Backbone:
């Protein structure tokens, strides 16, 4: 049976995330970042402006090994890539490098579910040096962990595995300090179904509501992005309603088969889009990657 390959590519939209619309994806405001080599891709872009340059952190994934690492792409003020490098690599798969500033430090919270841990990293030397700071035990089996400072405390949105195979549940945790201790929200899971995995940066609106991007995986993995409008969030309550937000557009071809990350970075927004490779060559590479992953697991 042929296996399809999702091939992702990142782009910068020259619009802020707050108020971003479908029309913004179909205009000249979009700048593509360089693609990976064949059968490899970059996805899950998150970023920071620092010293006048846009630092974009991505998952760099290769189907030959079925393992991802974290790269940084540094862009000048015109969004030209002037430097790229691997900044975090482990024996296990890494993705979703959520980067942010807090308490005078740079932090990263990448997904590393295959390691059995969720680890918060701090940068002693930004952007290329990252050290493990603390393990967040409450979400060790979660994916796409997304932190937010709001209402005087820290919140963490993450997807945990549901009892139904292939499904996820959206969970929430909170803490007084970024390094914890973290406590699970009493209403967990706050959502179930195909639209539960966080998909980027939460945006706090002027009316106090929070727009949390979520992946819509009802038709395909990372098919589109929906907006979860969180209207009440405290230690005892969670009230939210889901709305449509961004769909892949034909103008993005060949990357018009999916859209699964939206990261706010000041006056620009980072996204990633995919095309599905159904070629025989892609299937052979996927089989090779499966063998490489089994070999890693056997050695460990």
Residues:
């Amino acid at each position: 049976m042929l296996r399809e390959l999702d091939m992702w590519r990142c782009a910068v939209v020259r619009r802020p995330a707050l108020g971003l619309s479908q029309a913004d994806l179909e205009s000249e405001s979009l700048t593509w970042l360089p693609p990976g080599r064949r059968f490899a891709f970059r996805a899950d872009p998150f970023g920071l402006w620092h010293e006048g340059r846009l630092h974009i952190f991505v998952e760099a994934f290769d189907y030959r090994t079925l393992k991802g690492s974290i790269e940084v792409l540094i862009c000048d003020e015109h969004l030209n890539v002037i430097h790229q490098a691997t900044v975090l690599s482990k024996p296990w798969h890494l993705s979703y490098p959520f980067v942010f500033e807090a308490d005078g430090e740079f932090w990263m919270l990448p997904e590393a579910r295959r390691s059995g841990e969720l680890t918060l990293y701090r940068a002693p030397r930004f952007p290329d040096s990252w050290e493990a700071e603390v393990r967040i035990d409450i979400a060790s089996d979660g994916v796409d962990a997304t932190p937010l400072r709001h209402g005087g405390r820290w919140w963490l949105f993450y997807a945990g595995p549901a009892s139904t195979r292939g499904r996820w549940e959206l969970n929430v945790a909170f803490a007084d300090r970024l390094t914890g201790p973290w406590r699970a929200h009493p209403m967990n899971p706050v959502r179930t179904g195909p639209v539960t995995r966080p998909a980027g940066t939460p945006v706090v609106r002027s009316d106090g509501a929070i727009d949390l991007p979520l992946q819509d995986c009802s038709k395909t993995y990372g098919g589109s992005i929906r907006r979860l409008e969180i209207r009440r969030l405290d230690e005892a309550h969670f009230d939210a309603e889901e709305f449509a937000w961004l769909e892949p557009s034909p103008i993005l071809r060949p990357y018009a088969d999916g859209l699964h990350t939206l990261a706010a970075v000041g006056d620009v927004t980072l996204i990633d889009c995919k095309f599905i490779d159904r070629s025989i060559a892609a299937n052979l590479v996927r089989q090779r990657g499966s063998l490489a992953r089994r070999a890693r697991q056997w050695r460990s």
